[in-house]
Amino acid sequence: MAYAYDDQNIFAKILRGEIPNNTVLETEYTLAFRDISPKAPEHVLVIPKGPYVTFDHFCNAASNAEILDFTRTAGQVCKMIGAAPDGTGSGFRAITNAGEDGVQEVPHYHLHILAGRPMGPMLLMR
Predict the structure, then answer these.
(1) Distances in whole angstroms, Cα of residue 48 to Cα of each of 17, 42, 43, 96
(2) What are 25's strand-pairing partners?
(3) Which of 50, 57, 68, 115 is the most buried (most CB within 10 A)?
């Protein structure tokens, strides 16, 4: 099954400039901005500018240039927000959700970078 991209999703509208955002970093292929409903003191969303629905879709369909740019941008954001555990920050959590079981709310691939406090356990076991 092919991925169907909905160009009316909120992130597509942000990329087109129809909805404002609080940009942290923008490159040729990537946009990083602050989440409007942060779950941690630092909560940045990193999105590719291309029409990718999920992480696996991005990995399999994006160009090498897009993948490299996205990855480097995410790393730069970690440094910029003081989260990189390289001696200057205390660490971060990077999360992406995909599909119904992953509780993906916006059908545009995005990476959450959360930092500024201990994140707790990864998942609550049921």
Answers:
(1) 15, 20, 17, 13
(2) 32
(3) 115
Catalytic-labelled residue, pool 43, 57, 108, 110: 110
**What are the average pLDDT values for consecutive 10-residue runs of the chain, which has 126 residues?**
88 98 98 97 98 97 98 97 88 95 95 94 72
Name the residue among 107, 30, 32 with its Cα closest to residue 65.
Answer: 30
pTM: 0.94
* Per-residue tokens: 31: 């946009």
Pairing label, strands 30-34, 23-26: antiparallel
User: Which residues, 6+ apart, have CB-to-CB distance to 84 below 8 Å?
Assistant: 75, 78, 92
Phi/psi for 45 (5° steps) reads: -100, 135
